[in-house]
Specification:
- It is a single chain.
- By secondary structure, the protein is of the alpha/beta class.
- The chain contains three helices and four strands.
- It has helices at residues 21-30, 46-55, 66-75; strands spanning 3-5, 9-16, 35-44, 58-61.
- It has a four-stranded mixed beta sheet with strand order 1-2-3-4, with helices on one face.
- Strand 1 and strand 2 form a beta hairpin.
- The radius of gyration is 11 Å and the shape is globular.
């Protein structure tokens, strides 16, 4: 499962596809003070990235992959 939801942190791992976007959006709206841990994420579908950016979900741990981490650096 690419996203594991804990009490206040969504852990995104491996490859997160478009199928995860809607569930991430619903969880984020239900947990407005939550954070995302992307440290083990290798790839994000653009829909998942849009959910993260549009909802303002804070990233507690950025992606280790430099290209993916760069997307978040440029979005700040």
């Amino acid at each position: 499962m690419p996203i594991q939801y804990k009490k206040s942190v969504a852990h995104l791992t491996g490859v997160c596809t478009v199928e995860e976007a809607e569930q991430l959006l619903a969880w984020t709206l239900a947990h407005p003070s939550a954070r995302a841990d992307l440290s083990r994420c290798d790839h994000l579908h653009s829909a998942v990235l849009q959910v993260l950016l549009a909802t303002g979900l804070k990233v507690s741990r950025p992606p280790a992959a430099p290209r993916l981490a760069g997307l978040f650096d440029s979005a700040r």
